[in-house]
Design brief:
The chain has one domain: 4'-phosphopantetheinyl transferase domain (Ribosomal Protein L22, Chain A). Helices cover 34% and strands 26% of the residues. The chain contains 6 helices and 11 strands. A 5-stranded antiparallel sheet has the order 6-10-9-8-7, with helices on one face. The chain has a 4-stranded mixed sheet with strand order 4-5-1-11, covered by helices on one side.
Length: 225
C-alpha cells in the first residue's frame, strides 16, 4: 500500500536510503573464488563425513571411489567455504539444493538465497566462484589454446544463466568487448583468473565485482570444519 501521511513519507525516504545502501553494497561487493589441487593424499574419512550430510540423491552420486566423484565432492566443499566467507555465517551441506539439469542452489533465508555460486573442475583443478548478488558462472578446462579460452568463456556464460550445454548453439550473437560481453540483449562481465597452471578459466557475472578474493585450499584442509 502506498504511504499517505507525512510521517509515512519519511518512512518512504528511509526505504529509498535502504535501497541505495543495498545498491552500493552490490556495486562494491567482492567475488569469492576458492580452489584446490587434487594431486596429493585424498582425505577419505573427512570426505565421507561431508558426503553423509548431503541430500540422499547427491550422496549417492559422490559415493563412488572415482576421480569424478572426488572432484564433485571437492567442489561442494569449496562451495561451502565460499558461501561461508561470502555470507559471514557457517553454511552446511544440507542447505544446498541439487536439482536435475540445473546448477546447485542455496536454500534458506531470502537474503541468503540471492547468493549465487558456480563449481567447475578439470583434471587436478577444482574451483568455486560465489557472488552475494546477481548471477555467476565459472568454467575451467585444461589447455591454453585459443579454442579452449573461447570454450570456457561460453560455458561460463551458460552456467551464469543456469543453462546446460544444449543451449550452446544459441550463443551465435555473442559480442565481446574487453572484459564485457553481450548476448540476447543482456550485458555481462567476465574475468580470466590465472591461478590454474596448464588450464584456462573464466568467470562470468551479471555485474562487475569490485574485486576477486581468491583462496587456495590444500587437500588436507578441504573438508575441515
Amino acid at each position: 500500500m502506498e504511504p499517505r501521511s507525512q510521517s509515512s513519507s519519511a518512512s518512504g525516504g528511509a526505504g529509498f536510503a535502504g535501497a541505495a545502501a543495498v545498491m552500493q553494497a552490490v556495486e562494491t561487493e567482492t567475488l569469492i573464488l576458492y580452489h584446490t589441487d587434487l594431486r596429493g593424499q585424498w582425505p577419505a574419512a573427512a570426505a565421507r563425513a561431508l558426503a553423509k550430510r548431503l541430500p540422499y540423491q547427491r550422496r549417492l552420486a559422490v559415493s563412488a571411489n572415482s576421480a569424478a566423484a572426488r572432484a564433485s565432492l571437492a567442489g561442494i566443499a569449496l562451495a561451502l567455504r565460499a558461501l561461508t566467507r561470502l555470507l559471514g555465517r557457517g553454511v552446511d551441506a544440507g542447505e544446498l539444493k541439487f536439482a536435475a539439469g540445473a546448477k546447485p542452489r542455496l536454500r534458506g533465508a531470502r537474503a541468503d538465497a540471492q547468493a549465487d555460486f558456480s563449481i567447475s573442475h578439470s583434471d587436478c583443478w577444482v574451483a568455486c566462484a560465489a557472488l552475494a548478488h546477481g548471477r555467476v558462472g565459472l568454467d575451467l578446462e585444461m589447455g591454453r589454446a585459443a579454442r579452449v579460452r573461447e570454450w570456457v568463456l561460453r560455458e561460463a556464460l551458460l552456467k551464469a544463466r543456469g543453462e546446460g550445454l544444449r543451449a550452446l548453439a544459441g550463443l551465435h550473437d555473442l559480442e565481446v568487448d574487453g572484459t564485457q560481453l553481450r548476448s540476447r540483449g543482456e550485458q555481462w562481465h567476465f574475468e580470466r583468473p590465472g591461478q590454474f597452471s596448464g588450464a584456462s578459466a573464466c568467470i562470468v557475472s551479471s555485474r562487475k565485482p569490485a574485486r576477486i578474493e581468491a583462496h587456495a585450499l590444500p587437500l588436507s584442509a578441504l573438508f575441515a570444519p
